[in-house]
Write a structure and sequence with these properties.
CATH class: Alpha Beta
Structural class: alpha/beta
Strand content: 15-25%
Number of strands: 5
CATH architecture: 2-Layer Sandwich
Helix content: 40-55%
Number of domains: 1
């Protein structure tokens, strides 16, 4: 499961059981109950890992937004029993916005789904990287290198 944590909302995306693709799930309001709701989702859906987008600035530093997300991650880690990782989410919201505009999604609808689309992009990038690293590890273990 991936999260796009903002000031007012948390976008959620989940992967298929094999970890091949990601799908937008829902957007939660940040009203003080979001950690409880996330804990319930992790438990009820048997989530094995949570990936939280970390808004690193373009120059690679952690600004105020990133610090707030790290605080959220700390609170989430206290609530769930699965690993919680962070993932560089630079420009995912902008990419999600471009995708929604390209599909002629109306502005009102974009506001409702943009965080879950961004979470889906975070998760897809994370899964792709994890798959590539797994393949590299397999190649190193077997001594094969097809490239």
């Amino acid at each position: 499961m991936a999260l796009d944590v903002g000031e007012k909302t948390v976008g959620i995306a989940v992967s298929d059981p094999l970890g091949i693709s990601s799908s937008p799930r829902e957007t939660l309001r940040r009203d003080g109950t979001e950690l409880d709701r996330l804990q319930k989702i992790v438990t009820s859906e048997e989530i094995g890992e949570v990936v939280v987008g970390l808004p690193i600035s373009l120059n690679g530093t952690l600004g105020p937004s990133a610090q707030k997300v790290l605080e959220f991650v700390g609170q989430l880690r206290e609530r769930v029993t699965v690993p919680v990782e962070t993932w560089d989410e630079r420009l995912t919201t902008a990419e999600a916005e471009k995708m929604l505009i390209a599909t002629d999604t109306r502005r009102a609808k974009r506001r409702k789904v943009i965080d879950q689309i961004a979470a889906s992009l975070i998760l897809q990038n994370y899964l792709r990287r994890k798959d590539l690293m797994g393949r590299r590890d397999d190649e190193e273990a077997t001594g094969s290198n097809d490239w």
